[in-house]
Specification:
Layout: E1 2-7, E2 10-15, E3 21-24, H1 36-45, H2 53-56, E4 63-68, H3 76-89, E5 97-102, H4 111-118, H5 120-125, E6 127-130, E7 136-141, E8 147-151, H6 152-155, E9 159-165, E10 168-169, E11 173-174, H7 188-195, H8 212-224, E12 228-234, E13 240-246, H9 250-263, E14 264-267, E15 271-277, H10 287-297, E16 301-310, H11 320-328, H12 332-341, H13 347-357, E17 360-365, H14 370-375, E18 379-381, H15 384-395, E19 401-404, E20 411-414
Parallel strand pairs: 3-19, 4-5, 4-9, 5-6, 9-12, 14-20, 15-16, 15-19, 16-17, 17-18
Antiparallel strand pairs: 1-2, 7-8, 10-11, 12-13
Length: 417
């Protein structure tokens, strides 16, 4: 079977013999009447757990809209027209609205990137700024000890509206919801404190129950205050297939339930070889982001198996601490010991890769130089097909294969586990 995998703005093709192919994990079929901007309009008229946004905001109030940065597939430009219409119906003036990009620990944007993310209309009408973690307001400390330091335009706003897309997150359970606040517009110290709980067993993809990372995120957001969210779920082609709006927790949970119906994939057993892609740009911009697909793939591979990770990584490793940890570690396992003794943001992704390497080898198909790939304890491969050929040579020509073309979104689950 010939399968296309997103790779930057292009594709990698891979041909897997039918006898070896255990599964191709694509989205489930879900019935839905509306998609795209029409679905966004519907969600805004049917909020979950709150009145309509036009009944919440008032003329003269300072409003902060928090949205995702360039490393996320959130189509802000598609939701802004309906959102601006709703604000306009409330009598809100453009000059009272600031659109803040939630950078977390990521790099800032160029002006052109900001315009592309939000669309020409919103960019020309609203003040658009990157969240500046050096200019924050301290709002307190969560019960788990995380400082709640929020960028000033968000902290000092009268109303806060959080945008985002919902997908699986490898230790917060799911993205979206309160994550726009923490880590989105928080300081590095706050993010580091929150993310230090990633090594707990309940901090995993698809889990909210007892997940201390997620609960800490939502406690921090409650201290800041979120008046309304507008979150979307995207299909494999990055089109809006579902939107939820309203209460920061109730609406988010409804979105998570829909995501499970779409992307939670039951498999009969683990495979010897798992081929996984993030689905292309912007999700595979760097290794820091591409790692998310790897973390979902670990749930589908047998112990002693091989994961073939396909991602452009054209911007390199993507984070300085992450790169330093990877390149300075004497062994992969040493990063697991290090994260337990001294949690560092950035190092957590290095440790996450090391945790996967405990059970499987990883071949990386990317635009990174081979020596860079080897410095991360990964095996470079020229193409997905070449990597598969090497994997068969290692594990035998009858090795079973699972392919995950949208690995950052699809979550495999073996029924027996």
């Amino acid at each position: 079977m010939n399968i296309k995998l997103g790779f930057g703005n292009g594709v990698q093709e891979i041909d897997v013999p039918d006898n070896n192919l255990l599964a191709v994990l694509q989205q489930n079929e879900v019935a839905g009447e509306l998609t795209g901007e029409a679905e966004v309009h519907r969600a805004l008229t049917e909020p979950i757990g709150t009145p309509r946004l036009r009944e919440i905001v008032k003329p003269g109030e300072k409003i902060a809209i928090i949205t995702s940065d360039i490393t996320r597939p959130m189509p802000t430009y598609k939701v802004m027209p309906a959102l601006l219409e709703e604000l306009g119906a409330a009598g809100v003036h453009d000059e009272d609205v600031t659109l803040v990009f939630a950078l977390g620990s990521h790099r800032g944007h160029t002006e052109e990137e900001q315009r592309r993310l939000v669309g020409d209309e919103a960019f020309s009408r609203l003040r658009c700024v990157d969240g500046d973690p050096s200019d924050c307001v301290h709002l307190g400390v969560t019960s788990r000890g995380t400082p709640v330091d929020i960028v000033r335009p968000v902290a000092q706003a009268d109303r806060r509206i959080c945008l985002g897309n919902i997908e699986y997150h490898y230790f917060a359970g799911y993205s979206g919801g309160a994550k726009a606040i923490m880590p989105g517009v928080s300081t590095r110290a706050a993010i580091q404190s929150n993310h230090s709980r990633m090594i707990e067993s309940t901090s995993c993809a698809g889990n909210l129950e007892g997940n201390n990372v997620r609960e800490d995120i939502e406690e921090a957001a409650a201290m800041c205050g979120v008046d309304f969210i507008l979150n979307v779920v995207l299909d494999e082609h990055k089109e809006i297939i579902k939107a939820v709006a309203g209460d920061v927790t109730k609406a988010h949970r409804a979105g998570c339930a829909f995501l499970d119906s779409l992307y939670l994939k039951k498999i009969p057993e683990r495979a010897d070889i798992v081929v996984v892609s993030q689905g292309g740009a912007p999700k595979d911009l760097n290794l820091y982001q591409t790692q998310k697909a790897l973390d979902n793939a670990k749930h589908a591979v047998k112990k002693g198996g091989i994961i073939i990770l396909v991602g452009s990584c054209r911007e390199g490793f993507g984070e300085s601490v992450f790169e330093s940890w990877m390149e300075s570690a004497p062994t992969a396992h040493s990063m697991i010991d290090r994260i337990r003794a001294d949690f560092q943001l950035g190092g957590h992704k290095a440790a996450a890769i090391a945790m996967v390497l405990e059970d499987a080898d990883i071949y990386l198909v990317s635009e990174l130089p081979d020596d860079k790939v080897r410095s991360a304890f990964l095996k470079p491969a020229a193409s997905a097909q070449e990597a598969l050929k090497e994997a068969f040579a290692r594990l035998g020509q009858d090795a079973s294969v699972i392919v995950m073309p949208y690995g950052g979104s699809t979550l495999p689950r073996v029924a027996a586990e």
